[in-house]
Amino acid sequence: MVIYMSKRELTGRRSRATPAVLDSGPAYVTRRIPYYAFLDEEALVRIENQAFHVLETVGIEFREAPDALERWRLAGASVAGTRVRADRALVRALLATAPAEFTQVARNAARSVRIGGPHQVFAPVYGSPFVRDLEGGRRYGTLADLQRLIKLTHQLAPLHHSGFVTCEPCDIPVSKRHLDMLLAHMTLTDKPHLGAITERSRAEDSIAMARLLHGEAVVEQHCVIMGNVNTNSPLLVDKVVTDAAQVYCGAGQGLVVVPFILSGAMGPVTTAGAIAQALAEAMIVGAYTQLVRPSAPFVLGNFLSSMNLRSGAPTFGMPEPLMSNLAIGQLSRRLNLPLRCGGALTASKVPDAQAAAESADSMLSTVLGGANFILHAAGWLEGGLATGYEKLVLDADRLGAYETVLRGFATDDDALGLDAYADVEPGGHFLGSAHTLSHYRTAFYEAPLSDSNSVEQWEEQGSKDAARRAYDRWNQLLEEYTPPPLDSAVRESLEDYVARRKSELPDAWY
What is the pLDDT of residues 175-212, one digit of tens each? Predict the structure, then answer.
């Protein structure tokens, strides 16, 4: 039997304004499906052995970090100049003290996220100096852009975490911008966020402001903020990393450590070799965090990029990095450590078909591989140089779909429709059955930006492509934004801290 609806009925149903704010979702995703086992045991052991060969024989440089070198000496590592060589037993013993999973507490307890184990947390793009939107084009990011992007992140339920450098506010001096960024994250959203890492004093400001926001006792007992750092591949841990470890982990807060390896330039051109180097670099910093403070939260990271060997340009969404996302997931679980990798990555300059394909492939491998904390899950364009407003909301749509996949589906009597056939005769339909009516609101994921209307309806509504629909959506989201409540005394203490620190710091643009 075919059910017909008039054009008026269909148009009437679809012409109602789509609600701008996504239905409130979980604070994070708890995975209920198996992990994808990409490598067999022999391959995993060979990569691990190569990583430990690098640590034991080649060694890792710890430069401008006399405190770190002394800690390694006292722990029993071999230290020659600034080169540290640590055997696998020592590294494994130290990593065993890091928590397998932990909670990052948000100022709104309902927004706190669980990192590690079967849990997955999505956060937006990080570090872009430029922004792009359909009408404004490509331009340097400003504080106003950052504030708008945080507001959007706050309203998009599939983004569980607000990250930190959603774009660089390039209109604020480098020496002071971290203060405005922290204030924006702490006041414009009640989701958890990261802190500054580019200089020791900026990391210290992050911890100080976290104490004002959460209270001294909460910070002492819980992880409320994390730093996200990159090793200086190949095989160099610089002062930024060791200072961040001392400040964040020293205060009992978290550190995310991500080797960013452009295969063939900053690491071996082969996928297995690049993964082994990344694993070695991440493990040595993870072990160091535990020398600073045993049981400090640590997230092992992996960010491999292939490259065009003719031009030297990095490429994204290509098969080699996708395979690394799957492999590093297996390796991190063998170490019993939380993992950060992947994201909705693309080299495309605009949210076009290339961006969709590369981002979807990259994100799917990250999801299947089991990464626990995923930066760049939405908004990434141009190899990370630009944050796309339209791309942010388009990616969020897909994150909601991945959440559905990660939850899997039930197979109980109701899920199998055991009683549905009592209402449906052979050759009939299920549209009016009690089983369908009991599930019709929640049966399928609906992506707000996907258009499934007829071509006539699409034309009547302006023939808008996905980018134009996304432009309309993020503008609607901003119009409907309401800031989350914050105690006025806490807000005042944060604003006073920012004003005082700005008065103490000279303007510096580098």
Answer: 999 999 999 999 999 999 999 999 999 999 999 999 99
C-alpha atoms less than 13 angstroms from C-alpha of 357 in its C-beta half-sphere = 7
Q: In what order do the strands lie in the sheet with 380-381?
A: 137-140, 130-133, 386-388, 380-381
pTM: 0.94
Contacts of 91-97 with C-beta under 8 Å, sequence gap 24+, read 91/52, 91/55, 91/283, 91/284, 91/287, 92/335, 94/286, 94/287, 94/288, 94/290, 94/291, 95/283, 95/286, 95/287, 95/290, 95/298, 95/335, 95/337, 96/336, 97/290, 97/294, 97/295
Amino acid identity of residue 468, one-letter, is R
Looking at the DSSP assignment, which residues form a beta bridge with residue 120?
29
Per DSSP (E only), the strands in 392-468 are none
CA dist., res. 271 & res. 321, Å (int): 8
Q: For 130-164, how does the pLDDT look when each residue is reduced to its tens digit (9 = 90+)?
A: 999 999 999 999 999 999 999 999 999 999 999 99
List Cβ neighbours of 171 (8 Å cut-off, separation of 6 or more). Answer: 140, 142, 143
Summarize pLDDT for 93-134 with one digit per residue, the tens. 999 999 999 999 999 999 999 999 999 999 999 999 999 999
- DSSP states of 479-493: HH--PPP--HHHHHH
Q: Which residues of 291-312 are buried (b: 16+ CB within 10 A; e: fewer)?
A: bbbeebbbbbbbbbbbbeeeee
User: Does residue 161 contact residue 121 with C-beta atoms inside 8 Å?
Assistant: yes
Q: Count the neighbouring beta carbons within 10 Å of the beta carbon of residue 416.
A: 10
Over residues 490-501, the pLDDT tens digits come to 999 999 999 999
